[in-house]
Write a structure and sequence with these properties.
The complex is a heterodimer of chains A (114) and B (111). Chain A has no helices and eleven strands. By secondary structure, chain A is mainly β. Chain A has a single domain, classed as Immunoglobulins (Immunoglobulin-like, Sandwich). In chain A, the strands form two sheets. In chain A, strands 2, 4, 5, 6, 9, 10 and 11 form a seven-stranded mixed sheet that branches. A four-stranded antiparallel sheet of chain A has the order 1-3-8-7, with no helix packed on it. The chains are: A mainly beta (114), B mainly beta (111).
């Protein structure tokens, strides 16, 4: 069966520090991969999505970036965190090649910026 | 741009009462998905509707896709405390693999 792993579960970082969140998927190949951010009590904002290695689509201009160095690995990064980057970051995957597939989410990372 | 809205934003019900959340899209959707997010958890896929006017049931949950494929609803009969959470609908952005999530309805069930 397929599984998705995200780490760390929680993170507290000072303003201006760098960020690296990692997500890996097991049990499937060539997945679509997504990064979402959820502010407290709010909906899901799509940040990035990828349909293959090295193929990243950015949804919202910001100081975050994403990379997909391997087929089942998706990384969210920042060189300098802002207070507004606080939130719940969720990675998700779906079957590649068709739009009518559910998204499967990881447990998420709660990021607090001080 | 394409938008997906949900109402109500919040709903408090007594255990045993029914609950309904409504989802409205600014554009016609090829399909619609529903997710549930428990407090402190991540969204979990519930169901997908594809056909115009489609109705699907999962135990006490009834999902409906509108005839024009621009709206959908989720109805829970006789709510239980285990139904607590936020319910999101999501529709695909035309021509992409991306889904636009609705604003969500947070359900609180009072025992």
């Amino acid at each position: 069966s397929q599984t998705i792993h995200q780490w760390p579960a929680t993170l507290v970082q000072p303003v201006g520090s760098p960020l690296s969140l990692e997500c890996t998927v097991e049990g499937t190949s060539n997945p679509n991969l997504y990064w979402y951010r959820q502010a407290a009590g709010r909906g899901l904002q799509l940040l990035f999505y990828s349909v293959g290695i090295g193929q990243i689509s950015s949804e919202v201009p910001q100081n975050l970036s994403a990379s997909r160095p391997q087929d089942r690995q998706f990384i969210l990064s920042s060189k300098k965190l802002l207070l507004s980057d606080s939130g719940f970051y969720l990675c998700a995957w779906s079957v590649r090649g068709t739009v009518n597939q559910p998204q499967h989410f990881g447990d998420g990372t709660r990021l607090s910026i001080l | 741009g394409q938008q997906v809205m949900q109402i109500p934003q919040y709903q408090h019900v007594q255990e045993g009462e029914d609950f309904t959340t409504y989802c409205n899209s600014s554009t016609t959707l090829s399909n619609i998905q529903w997710y549930k997010q428990r407090p402190g958890g991540h969204p979990v896929f519930l169901i997908q509707l594809v056909k115009s006017g489609e109705v699907k049931k999962q135990k006490r949950l009834t999902f409906q896709f509108g005839e024009a494929k621009k709206n959908s609803s989720l109805h829970i009969t006789a709510t239980q405390t285990t139904d607590v959470g936020t319910y999101f609908c999501a529709g695909p952005r035309v021509g992409t693999y991306k889904y636009i999530f609705g604003t969500g309805t947070r359900l609180k069930v009072l025992a």
